[in-house]
Amino acid sequence: MDILLERKSVRKYTNEDVKQEDLEYILRVAMSAPTARNTRCYSFIVIKDKQMHKKIASVHQAAQMILNAPVAVLVVGDQSLSYGGYLPQDCAAATQNILLAATARRYGSVWCGIYSNEERSNAISKLFNLPENIKPFSLVVIGRAQDNSPAKDRWQSEKVKYEVW
Ligand SMILES: Cc1cc2nc3c(=O)[nH]c(=O)nc-3n(C[C@H](O)[C@H](O)[C@H](O)COP(=O)(O)O)c2cc1C
Predict the structure, then answer these.
(1) Ligand 1 contact, 88 CB (< 6 A)
(2) Residue whose CA is closest, atom 3 of ligand 1?
(3) What is the rounded distance in angstroms from the CA atom of residue 158 to the CA atom of residue 165?
(4) Class for the domain spanning 3-143
(5) For the chain, what are the domain ranges?
(6) DSSP letter at 151?
């Protein structure tokens, strides 16, 4: 099957670690995402520390899967570098690349939203002591999936229009 169609959200992981080589591949792919005016305003915080995972879970209700994951990547954007208000798009492209690269290396992953949720955003900024210009965008939790069921086919022909609405 085409690897690009295999991505799905995975929230249950085995105890297996994410290899450093794979992590670097995943982050290299993240950095190959497009950014408006090529500002590359993203940065990535790799979080393996279990105490930190617990702290994140305590402020992000929808990220409880982090408690059983080997690693998470916090995607942040630098507001002082980004161009024309495109920070969220730039960070979203990098986040999606992380998910696809993790899938390509046979890891499960899930995008946990932070940006545009003010409460979460403030709590994560505080937890990581982020400078004012560094905005937390997403948390990607990664690990080897417990269950290797295939991704659903989401093709819907009615979502596609040709030439006119
Ligand atoms: C912006 C955004 C925020 C999301 N936030 C969360 C989250 O906080 N926790 C979570 O478990 N999944 C989160 N997801 C994953 C979605 O729930 C998931 O992509 C959706 O249900 C479709 O399932 P799939 O990824 O398996 O195709 C988020 C996805 C996006 C794009």
Answers:
(1) no
(2) 113
(3) 11
(4) alpha beta
(5) 3-143
(6) P
